[in-house]
Write a structure and sequence with these properties.
Length: about 120
């Protein structure tokens, strides 16, 4: 049975969002380009430039979201997992991170500290 990690699911979801947004932006660019070729209007060129700018901005937002998710979700999970592995090897002198955090990571860290005894 294959084990799917939360991180992988998040990356797949973000990839789907990027793909959907990119396809929508490409369709918009082609539509505007056709209008530009038909009308030769300066307005169509500005719409094309705007849609390209929108594609660049949306790509930057997605990259920022991936960085934020990686920093705020993946790193704490890795650190807590490392503490769990050390605790399972009977190393009771380990430092368990995130015990003071008032979120799910803090809850897991405090619970892990209870296992330490």
């Amino acid at each position: 049975m294959t084990k799917i990690k939360v991180r992988d699911l998040l990356y797949m979801a973000m990839g789907c969002l990027v793909l959907t947004g990119t396809i929508a932006n490409l369709l918009l660019m082609f539509t505007v380009w056709e209008q530009y070729q038909i009308d030769h209007a300066q307005d169509a060129f500005f719409k094309l430039a705007g849609s390209i700018g929108l594609a660049v901005i949306s790509s930057c937002v997605v990259v920022a979201a991936v960085i934020i998710v990686t920093k705020n979700l993946t790193q704490p999970i890795k650190r807590l997992t490392s503490a769990m592995v050390e605790l399972s090897n009977h190393d009771l002198d380990i430092h368990i991170p995130y015990q003071t955090h008032q979120n799910e990571f803090g809850d897991m860290a405090r619970t892990l500290d209870m296992f330490r005894g």
